[in-house]
Amino acid sequence: MSKSLIASAFAGVFAFSGGAMANSGLEQIHQENSQIIREAVRSQERINTIYEQTQDLLNQYRQVVDQTDSLTVYNDFLQTLVTDQQRQINSIQRQIDTLEDTRRGTVPLMFKMIDALEEFVKNDIPLRTDRRIERVERLREVMARSDVQLSEQYRQIMEAYSIEAGYGSELAAFQGTLNLGGNELTVDYVHLGRLALMAMSLDGSNAWHWNRQTNSWEQLPDSYLTGVSDFIKMARREINFDMARVPLIAAE
What we know:
alpha+beta; 5-stranded antiparallel β-sheet
């Protein structure tokens, strides 16, 4: 009887000890599983971080590739511009070289034109001679100025020639001074182109005409006074122009 109780007691102790040991093993397994799960979570977080970093690097790489392609296109565009600019520079330089050659040939010609114009004025009828000589002198001054372009110098020379051509076809009257034997007399000048050039004293008592054969002023007879007076009035548009009433003695 006592032996059975003792055996039962031992069996109960072993049973209790076995249950405690089983519970302890399960708890350890549970802890290990929890640790494994935590490690797995941390590993996954690291993987996610690495993935995100990889994606960022990939995006940056793609941006760099895109920028590189854009820069390549832009550089090609700039090279095209540089090539075109260089072509324009070469063209301009050729034009400058040509212009310089033209200038070397044109400038002497322009000076010859001015000399010829001056010679013409001096040998022409004494029609506004002082004004015309002053115009020639201004042309020489313009030619000596570095701030005036060649085209403008040429334009002014041609303008002077145009003015001279205009004198050959205009009918005009103007006041001026007439030198007679060293005496300066204020007169009314009148001319029809270069066909007739006459002068009359302001009181209408005397008249003269330019004799192209003698290159001198000659006094007209009194019979011409009315004709010269009408000639002046026609030039001033005070009466209608009538070629028949123009005294043409100057054409002799």
